[in-house]
Amino acid sequence: MTNILMVCLGNICRSPLAEGILRSKLPKENFYIDSVGTANYHVGNKPDLRSIAIAKKYEISIATLKGRQFKVLDFDRFDFIYVMDQSNLENVLKLARHKNDINKVSLILDQITPNENLEVPDPYYGGNDGFEIVYKMLNEACNTIAKRLNP
Ligand code: 4NP
Predict the structure, then answer these.
(1) Fewest Cβ atoms closer than 10 Å to its Cβ: which of 41, 56, 79, 115?
(2) Distances (CA, A) of 17 to 20, 22, 26, 47, 137
(3) Is any ligand 1 atom within 6 A of the Cβ of residue 36?
(4) Measured distance CA(103)–CA(100) in Å, rounded
(5) How far is 122 from 13, CA to CA, in rounded Å?
(6) Helices (H) and strands (E) in the chain — how many of each?
(7) Which residues contact 20 (CB under 8 A, 6 or more apart)?
(8) For ligand 1, is residue 55 a contact (CB within 6 Å)?
(9) How far apart are the first and last CA of the chain?
(10) Residue 134 CB less than 6 A away from ligand 1
(11) What CA–CA distance (Å, rounded) separates 27 from 122?
């Protein structure tokens, strides 16, 4: 089994969407995919209604996911940890215990634009178009991840 973790701040907008999109592209027999937030604001909550709606538009269901917070043990449970932005990256790397932990973590958009440090923008305070943009970015990144991990 290959274990993949998607990380954002709240675990209600970007990372649950990334989780649902990548899950739709990989066989569940071989890939376990989860998502978390670096903050604890939305632990136990379902995704933002706007994330649920954009996923549904593309025939992906994320309505039953529940928010949880990143914890150090996630470094042991997951092989690849994809973060949405620089602030998530810093928050996760602060908890790394050794080089092996650090090596698992990367910006998700590095998959399509390596070394440019591009971020998936937080759509929480914006309108619905922000969620469409985020969906497109994540879909492209997840296409690349799926092709690389399951060629
Ligand atoms: P996410 O978006 O990190 O993509 O889930 C956010 C959701 C909620 C908050 C911030 C970002 N918040 O401050 O409550």
Answers:
(1) 115
(2) 5, 9, 15, 8, 11
(3) no
(4) 5
(5) 8
(6) 6, 4
(7) 55, 60, 61, 62, 65
(8) no
(9) 15
(10) no
(11) 28
Cα(123)–Cα(119) distance, integer angstroms = 12
- Kindly report the pTM of this predicted structure: 0.98
- For ligand 1, atom 6, the nearest C-alpha belongs to 10
CB 63 within 8 Å of CB 28: no
| pLDDT tens-digit series, residues 3-17 | 999 999 999 999 999
For residue range 75-119, what is the model confidence (pLDDT) as tens digits?
Answer: 999 999 999 999 999 999 999 999 999 999 999 999 999 999 999
Query: For residue 99, what are the contacts with CB-CB under 8 A and spacing of at least 6?
Result: none
The one-letter amino acid at 27: P
